[in-house]
Amino acid sequence: MSHAYDHLEPAELWRQFAGLNAVPRPSRKEQAACEHVRTLALEAGLDVRSDDIGNVVVYVPATSGREGAPAVTIQAHLDMVCEARPDVAHDFDTQPILPQRAGDWILATGTTLGADNGIGAACALALLRGAGGPHGPLELLFTVEEEIGLVGALKLDWNLLSARLMINLDSEDPAELTVGCAGGARTNLRLPAKAVPVPRGLAAISIVIGGLKGGHSGVQIHEPLGNSLKLLSRVLDRAAVQTAVRISSISGGNASNAIPRDASTLVLVPAESREDVLNALRREAELIVDQWFRAEPDLAIAIDAAEAPPSCLSADTSERILELLRELPHGVLAVSKDFPGTVETSSNVARVRVDGSFVQIDTSSRSFRTESLAALQAEINRIASDHGAEVDAGDAYPAWAPNPHSQLLATTRRAYARLNGIEPKVRVIHAGLECGALLGRGPEGAEAISFGPRIEGAHTPEERVHIPSVRRTWDLLVALLDDLSA
Fold first, then answer.
1. Which of 111, 112, 228, 278 could, after both became Cys, cross-link 260 (CB 3.0–4.6 A)?
2. Residue 407's pLDDT band (boundaries 50, 70, 90)?
């Protein structure tokens, strides 16, 4: 176990987190992590089962005297968002996460840490290893592909579970109990983009945007965080005002649920106009950096003359890309009237890539209201159609409607108040949680609650987890399982 975890409590929880982060676990590539869980379960002599999508359930018998208590599902996802700083070379498919400690925080070395949702999974693995206190029968559910649309939860084989009580460990504020979440959907736009030889008389300009903080598109969409693709669109619009622009290459963003931090493009303009365009773009870049200085102090926009490439996209295709990036909605679109201060509807322009003969632009939308989400998806589809792009609708997931009369909520509130001496905040969140996907397909009358440690910077290389809050999360979990089985 890394020295970063030395002397941390609960020791078994941190040992299991270290073990998880030694196993690569990007979305769609969780096989090694699933096998890690299976191995631990079999070593402990426990029954373990999997479904066709790859979700794993480990069955932990009740402790002595609690055999008659209702079964409880402990749920966490195994996959993690894989983001690295531009200057950090890290192969998430093969290399372990390298942790470090900074005061009361654990973080990684230039990459995402995987505390989202590795700490929750480590809590479940610690229970598997016999840590904790009295409890009834447990069903430890480890889901896959959560970060790319809650795929594992949506495709779970419910024959694996019998419990009607579920504790989700994927929240990120230890002062809160989460009882509801927004639904969401991904929409991927594919614009036909045939490369052609670069016409004579054109010169190249490189535009690179970096240094943005990024963030979770559900948790942090309301914060003043720059979107690299929207900023790139603004710079490109300034170029288009000067002259006709051809795009040779364009890329930015890494995950549909992360606000993009970096973007770059190589464009072509008439050679005789290049210096004028360079000067205009640099002035625009200075305005952008100055506008965002307080919120994004590390924002950097590099605009330079470049060597002309052998091919580029047509003028028509280039114009369509600019129009799509300009018109696609991003940010907070509506605030909830029912839950003051909570974002109701939002959208994230998340990623752009040249993929063979297509340019692909990925968006992620969320809302508490089904009709608002449908209207937003329809608007994105209209924008795509107007500019000749095909639409590939990704997996949607349902909202988790709050139940203020839940007995599980009441029991959790009492346990929290007893441990902490204060009442918890009870809230709904704009980010997606697997509870909605799971309860929507589970048995009638099933209840869920979600809580977790303080995690900051999720989905970015600045991700970190607050060490004392991990202990508080564990203590609440142990106390709640005791109360539920008493």
1. 228
2. very high
Q: What phi and psi, each to the nearest 5 degrees, are found at residue 318?
A: -60, -40
Residue 119 CA to residue 141 CA, distance in Å, equals 14
pTM: 0.78
Q: Both tokens of residue 444?
A: 């009638």
Alpha carbon distance 240, 280 (integer Å): 11
> What local confidence, expressed as pLDDT, does residue 124 receive?
98
Instruction: Supply the angle between the helices 467-485 and 11-21 in degrees, to the nearest 10.
Output: 110
- Told to judge if 284 belongs to the known catalytic residues of this protein, a careful annotator would answer no
The pLDDT value recorded for residue 313 is 95
What is the chain's length? 486
pLDDT for the residue 218: 87
Among 79, 170, 323, 463, which one carries the catalytic annotation? 79
Residue boundaries of the structural domains of the chain: 3-182+399-485, 185-397
Q: Please say whether the beta carbons of 178 and 224 come within 8 A.
A: no
- Which of 116, 146, 172, 262 is catalytic? The answer is 146
Domain 185-397 has CATH 3.30.360.10: no
**CATH no. for 3-182+399-485:** 3.40.630.10
Catalytic, 323? Answer no
